[in-house]
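Hypothesis: this fold can be encoded by more than one sequence.
Test: take the structure tokens below, design a sequence, compare later.
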């Protein structure tokens, strides 16, 4: 599998790619193996009708009931009213538990309303999507499944909005028309011969250009209307036998694949998991170096964040769509361009039985790649829409583990 770009993709993902490594096997880096009967994951260090994202500026805030109770508690002097503070904190915890329990119950009682199955016949692909608003008062995750971008090309994408849902809604509505209108991509999708390295480089450039075009439009609108919306994004483009994954931020995609060998001790097939995206976090060394070199700073405040003395916001990701106060485009803040919209991109040749799991960080903050793989393995032999059931099971797992975020999961059987 072709390695993902590191610091170089800040400038151009198409430069310096070694496309000769696009083979059917997986590399050993970033990979975990799971045996079929293992029940525990190994421990390792146009707007869509349905969809649904995280809180203000990717900040994992508490529920409003918890916040207000905590504020009330801190209004007392700990020396004079320790019992009052204790009572308020207990009430806050109880309110948070009740909120999580209500979100889980709502999802479990009407799971059919929060999930959907797609059969993309021309490519023999099945897609299951599930989502939940969680404990939030709003839904900022948006997803899109485009069956026929071209006759031999399909798209699945998740956009995780912050500081409002508008950026995610805009991106979800425009990503497919934007790519479908690209004549070069259309020509590549219709050609009969396998894609050559120059073709793959061209698709990388097309995907990057699409991300930057979305970003430009979102920035223009939010600046004009005095908004600060932003969104992370993960896009999966299936073109004949090739699969391309592009992302900004911490929405993630993983590949679950049957290993090329059997476990000699059990004679059972094993599964591998490999991450297909990059979590663009401020503490990632390459991302931190880029932010610092651009004149920004990385600070810890609940989590690692990008900031600047002149900026009105702190952001928990280093790449996104929108977020003009940290893009060097805001006349009000006049900050340097600290956050990038250039995506990390990867591709591989699909095999029969490959499964890709795509999700917003509402899942990945509570579920590891290996645990997601285990859920895939547990459900892959269930008859009838197993992709939808797996997606719903993963959303349920995040809710059981008390995620505070919106959650959206898509499971693709290739």
């Amino acid at each position: 599998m072709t390695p993902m770009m590191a610091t170089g993709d800040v400038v151009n993902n198409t430069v310096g790619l070694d496309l000769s490594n696009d083979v059917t096997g997986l590399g050993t880096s970033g990979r975990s193996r799971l045996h079929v009967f293992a029940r525990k994951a190994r421990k390792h260090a146009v707007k869509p009708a349905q969809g649904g994202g995280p809180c203000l500026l990717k900040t994992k805030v508490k529920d409003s009931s918890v916040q207000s109770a905590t504020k009330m508690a801190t209004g007392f002097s700990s020396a004079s009213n320790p019992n009052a503070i204790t009572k308020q904190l207990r009430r806050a915890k109880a309110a948070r538990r009740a909120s999580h329990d209500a979100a889980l119950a709502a999802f479990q009682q009407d799971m059919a309303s929060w999930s959907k199955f797609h059969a993309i016949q021309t490519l023999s692909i099945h897609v299951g999507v599930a989502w939940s608003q969680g404990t939030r008062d709003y839904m900022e995750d948006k997803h899109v499944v485009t069956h026929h971008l071209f006759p031999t090309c399909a798209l699945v994408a998740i956009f995780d909005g912050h500081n409002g849902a508008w950026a995610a809604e805009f991106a979800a509505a425009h990503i497919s028309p934007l790519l479908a209108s690209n004549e070069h991509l259309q020509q590549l999708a219709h050609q009969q011969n396998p894609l050559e390295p120059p073709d793959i480089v061209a698709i990388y450039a097309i995907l990057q250009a699409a991300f930057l075009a979305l970003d430009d439009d979102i920035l223009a609108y939010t600046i004009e209307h005095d908004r600060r919306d932003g969104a992370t994004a993960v896009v999966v483009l299936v073109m004949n036998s090739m699969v391309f994954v592009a992302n900004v931020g911490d929405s993630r995609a993983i590949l679950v694949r049957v290993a090329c060998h059997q476990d000699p001790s059990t004679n059972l097939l094993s599964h591998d998991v490999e991450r297909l995206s990059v979590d663009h976090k401020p503490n990632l060394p390459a991302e931190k170096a880029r932010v610092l070199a651009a004149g920004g700073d990385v600070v810890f405040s609940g989590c690692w964040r990008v900031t600047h003395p002149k900026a009105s916001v702190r952001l928990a990701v280093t790449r996104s769509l929108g977020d003009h106060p940290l893009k060097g485009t805001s006349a009000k803040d006049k900050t340097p361009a600290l956050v990038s919209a250039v995506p990390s991109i990867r591709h591989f040749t699909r095999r029969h039985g490959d499964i890709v799991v795509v999700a917003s960080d509402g899942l990945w903050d509570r579920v590891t790649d290996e645990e997601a793989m285990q859920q895939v393995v547990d459900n892959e032999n269930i008859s009838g829409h197993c992709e939808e059931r797996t997606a719903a099971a993963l959303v349920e797992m995040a809710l059981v583990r008390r995620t505070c975020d919106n959650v959206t999961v898509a499971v693709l059987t290739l």
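The domain at 7-35+50-55+117-277+350-413 is CATH 3.60.40.10 (Phosphatase 2c; domain 1). The longest strand covers residues 252-263.
Hypothesis status: open.
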